[in-house]
Amino acid sequence: MDAKSRILSRIRHALKDRPKALLPEHPHPAFSQDAMELFLKRLTENGAEGHLVDKEGARKLLADLAQGLPGAAYGKGIPDAFRLLPELPPEEAPLGVSRALFAVAETGTVALSSEDGRRTQLLPPVHLVLVEEKRVYPSLLEAFLDLKSLPSALGLHSGPSKSADIGQVMVKGVHGPGRLVVAVLQGTW
Question: How far apart are CA 167 and CA 8, in angstroms?
Answer without folding.
Answer: 49
